[in-house]
Design goal:
The chain is built from 2 helices and 3 strands; from the N terminus they run H-E-E-E-H. Strands 1-2-3 form a 3-stranded antiparallel β-sheet, with helices on one face. By secondary structure, the protein is α+β, with helices and mostly antiparallel strands. It has one domain. It binds zinc ion (ZN). Zinc ion binds next to loops.
Length: 106
Amino acid sequence: MRRSAMTKVERESRSQLKPYISWKEFIRATPTLRKQTCGKPNCKCQKGEKHTCLVLTRSHHGRPEQLYVPKESEEMVKEWVKNYHAVKELVEQISSSYWERLRKKG
Ligand SMILES: [Zn+2]
């Protein structure tokens, strides 16, 4: 599609997608904060103050998979997940512009 033939929304969505496609990290997964006890007898987690750990889950080729995220990477990985949602949203906007195009012709 020539840029001049694109709708404003499509042009803007494609521009916003560029950094994600070129260099921004993204990951399709659901992050869940899991609470657990470590087993040490005198640890605070035995008194109810449980340890937390970020777990990612995804369905890959129809199978569920999960992955523990190292503590020091938690914030970074949450950002990757946010980026994935942004990519999905932008792709959806572009897709909708073609949907509308076909609908108007019909
Ligand atoms: Zn503990």
